[in-house]
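Sample intake sheet
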Amino acid sequence: QVQLVESGGGLVQAGGSLRLSCAASGRTFRLSDMGWYRQAPGKERDFVARINWSGSITSYADAVKGRFTISRDNTKNTVYLQMTSLSPEDTAIYYCTIPYSGYWGQGTQVTVSS
């Protein structure tokens, strides 16, 4: 059984930064790719970023490329999403996931005020 717990969301002004964390339980974390998705009100859940098991390969949605950075610490079973230059369009609930596993965290709210 795998549990994913996100934290670090909150209210920030436009142009500000936040760092999200996702703590994972279970032995599979170190062998798993990890991903971040987000869902804005009234919209579908969209891909944000992904990182491979070792941290050597990352990918990003065009909307966040150059502003967000995904990373991981396998010694802490944690994946991070560093978000900079935030805009109101980034307001959403952010979820971490193990891609294609069906495992999702409960989400953390990020609200960016203009």
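Comment: The chain has no helices and eleven strands. The longest strand covers residues 18-24.
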